[in-house]
Write a structure and sequence with these properties.
Rossmann fold; Cytidine Deaminase, domain 2; six-stranded mixed beta sheet; 23 strands
Length: 550
């Protein structure tokens, strides 16, 4: 259903008048009658546009310094009346209420006011909008019949649709605009609540904490309301963003015992936060962080894969025809670091694999499902946490890092390289076996803290060098780990999450007998790295993008 509604009458009342004259003039071109208030009406009239003032409709002048002007049945009835309800239509006719099809409202600049140095409480209070949120909420409730526009950046998209449809807006657009409108008023009220709470005493703050009804908040990004955005804006980050969060559980503590912590869930379905814990003592803060890292890693493999994670870095990753084969390969990379680690599998866990995992002290096992016999074996380990995880649905495309004074927001690193993406830059090209090993190493490298180096063969990691201050040390550490556990470095491959700034990385890797290297490329000294690879008869491929993880 995508029912169109003709826009015949619009109410415009805006504090931010950016673009409003052009928008109102364009509406007039579609034959839309414009109703307006106060300063907005004056601006439109001075621009030569025909305007009906709200006071002419209500029979009441604006009063109390503009605090009361639109709070009237002839305004809100024009928003709320259901056009296909005979009783509503009869009430409109009886009381002389004409329907309004489009509401264009933005709110008093409360946030901007309180951001000013030296602002008084009285000044802040006078910038609390009452009529605006009331109109937005009334009109949004009736999105079946009424469109609500709360941001100047939406004007072009609305006009584009009016042009395409001959003056109508679709049900889909009206629904999207209503969702945005309600989250705008939610954000506005939250700003007011937060400001007023800051004015309270400590006792009053405790009162608020005890009775605070606010559990979640969702802000919908204006940029995503209209799908047909300009190409140059299509990749823009959202202008507004917040998380829809609800407290799911208190945790014993955070990263350390002196830190408080809790688990919050978002509106996403699936994922680690909503995992079903089938066994074991309660999850800790660090368990959740490591389980997320492990789960994300195995989700990057289409084929069967097992990852063992320690402090968010993979100590080993293996693939194979069975879970057991893949697990043993992952464990062989670093059986010492696997002690107290997190094991993630991307296939249903069988009893044979469960028995093998039980041989090593493991904090958490994460998988999409477990055979009954496997679960029974895990339940013999009293403290082992067992999580059944479903892939995340309606997943938030962004990730967040808090810094003092705010947050950094970025799109998730979801890009996967395939053989067709690779650029072969050396005289010797990799063999089919080397290509398989390179792609495995590259997948794992994405999940290793930078500077990241991964040695691998076709089926498993051989050595992992994580989080070093220079890349040569990462090469040495990865090789040292492999040698420690007797794994063959000769004819293995190396992945680097970022380009080699100098040829010394290639020379260092060559000393361990590697046969192929995968790296992003892009250094001003790429030619030196390529020359070094040619000298050592190493095949090197470029991916064209990096995988920093900080």
């Amino acid at each position: 259903m995508n029912e169109l509604r003709k826009i015949k009458r619009a109410l415009i009342s805006v504090s931010d008048k950016t673009g409003i004259l052009e928008f109102a003039r364009a509406l007039g071109g579609f034959g839309v009658e414009i109703v307006s208030t106060g300063g907005t009406a004056r601006s439109l009239r001075e621009a030569g546009l025909a305007v009906t003032e709200v006071a002419e409709i209500t029979g009441f002048p604006e009063m109390m310094d503009g605090r009361v002007k639109t709070l009237h049945p002839k305004i809100h009835g024009a928003f709320l009346a259901l056009r296909d309800n005979p009783e509503h239509v009869g009430s409109m006719r009886e009381h002389g209420i004409e329907p309004i099809d489009l509401v264009v409202v933005n709110l008093y600049p409360f946030q901007e006011t309180i951001a000013k140095e030296g602002v008084t409480l009285e000044e802040a209070v006078e910038n609390i909008d009452i009529g605006g949120p009331a109109m937005i909420r009334s009109a949004s409730k009736n999105w079946r019949d009424v469109a609500v526009v709360t941001d100047a950046r939406l004007y072009d998209g609305v006009l584009d649709e009016l042009t395409e449809t001959g003056g109508s807006l679709s049900l889909e657009t009206r629904r999207r605009l209503a969702a945005l409108a309600y989250t705008r008023t939610a954000a506005y009220d939250l700003a007011i609540s937060s400001y007023l709470a800051d004015q309270l005493t400590d006792d009053d703050q405790e009162f608020l904490e005890e009775f605070n009804p606010l559990e979640n908040l969702l802000i919908i990004e204006t940029d995503e309301i209209f799908e047909e955005a300009d190409e140059e804006d299509a990749d823009a980050m959202p202008e507004f963003d917040a998380l829809d969060l609800e407290k799911a559980a208190d945790l014993r503590y955070g990263e350390n015992p002196h830190q408080k912590a809790a688990l919050y869930t978002s509106d996403e379905q699936g994922g680690i936060a909503r995992a079903e814990q089938l066994h074991g003592k309660e999850m800790s803060f660090n368990n959740y962080v490591d389980a997320e890292a492990a789960w994300n890693l195995v989700q990057d493999f289409d084929g069967l894969a097992v990852a063992i994670i320690k402090h968010t870095n993979p100590s080993g990753v293996g693939t194979g025809a069975t879970n057991l084969e893949a697990y043993r390969r992952a464990l062989s990379t670093d059986p010492v670091s696997a002690f107290g680690g997190i094991v993630a599998l991307n296939r249903r866990v069988d009893a044979e694999t469960a028995a093998a995992i039980n041989e090593v002290f493991t904090e958490v096992v994460v998988a999409p499902d477990f055979e009954p016999d496997a679960l029974e074996l895990f339940k013999r380990k009293k403290n082992l946490r067992v999580l059944r995880v479903a892939p995340a649905l309606n997943e938030n495309p962004f990730e967040y890092k808090q810094i003092s004074g705010g947050f950094l927001v970025q799109s998730k690193d979801l890009y996967r390289v395939t053989e067709s993406d690779l650029k072969f830059v050396t005289e010797r090209k990799p063999t089919a076996a080397e290509l398989g090993a390179l792609l495995l190493a590259w997948k794992v490298c994405k999940h290793v803290k930078s500077n990241a180096i991964v040695f691998a063969d076709e089926h498993r990691t051989i050595g992992v060098g994580a989080g070093q201050m220079n890349r040569v040390d990462s090469v040495r550490i990865a090789a040292m780990r492999a040698e420690r556990f007797g794994l063959p470095l000769a004819n293995s491959v190396v992945a680097s999450d970022a380009f080699f700034p100098f040829r010394d990385n290639v020379d260092e890797a060559a000393g361990y007998g590697v046969s192929a290297i995968i790296q992003p490329g892009g250094s001003i000294k790429d030619a030196e790295s390529i020359e070094a690879a040619n000298e050592h008869k190493i095949a090197m491929v470029f991916t064209g993008f990096r995988h920093f993880k900080h």
